[in-house]
Amino acid sequence: xFARIVWLVLRKDFTVEVRSLEIAYTMxxxxxxxxxIFAFALVQEGQAPEGGAAGILWIAIAFAGTLAxxxxxxxxxQSETLRALLLAPAARPAIYVGKLLGxxxxxxxxxxxxxPLVALLFQAPLLSRPGWLAIILVLGTLGxxxxxxxxxxxxxxxxxxxxxxxVLLYPITVPVIIAGVRATAALLQPEVDxxxxxxxxxxxxxxxxxxxxxxxxxxxxLMTD
Amino acid sequence: MQKWFVPAAVVCxxxxxxxxxLIAQAPYESTMGLVQxxxxxxxxxxxxxxxxxxxxxxxxxxxxFGGNPRHDRTAWxxxxxxxxxxxxxxxxxxxxxxxxxxxWWQWDVRLTSSLMGWMVAVAxxxxxxxxxxxxxxxxxxxxxxxxxxxxxxxxxxNYWRTIHPTTNVVPTLPTSFGxxxxxxxxxxxxxxxxxxxxxxxxxxxxxxxxALYLATDE
Lengths: 225, 218
Description:
The complex is a heterodimer of chains A (225) and B (218).
Chain A: H1 2-20, H2 22-42, H3 52-77, H4 81-87, H5 92-121, H6 130-155, H7 161-188, H8 194-223
Chain B: H1 5-25, H2 39-66, H3 69-100, H4 109-130, H5 135-158, H6 175-217
Helix pairs in contact in B: 1-6, 2-3, 2-5, 2-6, 3-4, 3-6, 4-5
């Protein structure tokens, strides 16, 4: 039952998005512009700053993610469809998981474009170890989106929600950004030290587990009027 | 207002007047000299910063799962005190660090987690002020996530090297240093209790006023 509701919410979001592709296009364009601004600001005389690529990749993900989170729930606010979703005889945590998976999928899609772009503009060997990078990106995106989905859902009814989402989200997701950036930076070293990557991956896994659990636990009381 | 409030406020005021004398009379620390006196403000405010964060987190948790508005008022009041005492800690810290370490700021465990905790409290206040209806629940959720966040920041930054002294320093202090420290810690604690009580009372009266307005409208 749980998995079925998750699937239905995910499919609904996917169908709505595919019809217009509004969030996908705007988020992608925004993320690419972000990376380009960093390239203009930091690349001097064809030389990219050392170790900058990891940070810029994660900043672009965080910015684009905030935009996607805000837009996804703005869409649910129009004609009060979120209320309808919550009124449905479905487990609230299942609705949360459905929404979360939708956002994670959207962000992973954007990362497919962002990673080669950052690698190209900042001359970083990001794609030399695609397996490791994929694990880091999936875990980091999941942690960021786990907190973001809950906060964006709660903010739907609040005033000035557009400004408040990044204000609330960034201080809480600092560990994800730190771990993501450090793990990616370790991956870019000429000689990869596996123990460093394992340490940050372990931290990311713990963060994901704790925050997804916490979100599932608090989604019900938080979304009740 | 409770009977104890005014006498306690007078005592707190007196203690604040005496504390500088005690601090001035404490001996100079051998390596840092005069600048070490910031310690008597920095450490107590950091303790109260932590205490208010714990009060805010526990009150938020109880509000989220109990729904009693009393806990929500306590959480809000405590969050404002987190911002106040956090600001004192974060201003006195770099002033001392500039002289003791030669730098204003280090990305060390304590500094980073304090800064992030303080930022969560500021975000909480922004939310409560501009979030409109429903922001009480949301704030409780934020406080809960903020609490869960601390160990992660702690672990992730602990991986980097640190120069901040650990808490093991305090029990080994000689009496001449310990007395002004504990005196100012008690002073800060008293101020915390008084401010918390005052702020909660303000919220209580505000909600009573709202209830009265609603009653006259009907």
